[in-house]
Amino acid sequence: MKFTDTQLRYLRTQPLGRLATLAPDGGLQNNPVGFNIDDEHRILIGGYEMGRSRKFKNAQKHDQVAFVVDDLKSTNPWQPRMVEIRGTAEALTDIDPPMEGLSREILRITPARVIEYGLDA
């Protein structure tokens, strides 16, 4: 699934998103993360010790994830904007990181469904 031009423009202006993963015990974890978008419109999430993180280990066991990027364009009038990406995550190792200084593990999210709100307002 590809992002629309509007979704891409918005996502590329945002520094953080929130990644929700499912732990092996059935508990949910939701973390703020930095991200990049690759040429195939997949979300790339790296970290300084990504391979040791709970989110990485969760994705190794259960690949279904949700990723949300949101902000407020204005508070008066109230204008929230967001993109929610539901899809599958691959926990990859020995990969060139998306940013210098990050570890060689990344999460790569392939969107299956994209929901947006307020981007055209």
From TrEMBL:
Keywords: Oxidoreductase. One of its GO terms (molecular function) is coenzyme F420 binding. InterPro entries: F420H2_bilvrd_red/Heme_oxyg, MSMEG_5819/OxyR, Pyridox_Oxase_N, Split_barrel_FMN-bd. GO terms for cellular component: cytosol. Gene3D superfamilies: Electron Transport, Fmn-binding Protein, Chain A. Pfam families: PNPOx_N. The keyword Cell inner membrane does not apply. Residues 5-95 form the Pyridoxamine 5'-phosphate oxidase N-terminal domain. It comes from the Bacteria. NCBIfam families: PPOX_MSMEG_5819 (TIGR04023). This is Pyridoxamine 5'-phosphate oxidase family protein. It comes from Nocardioides panzhihuensis.
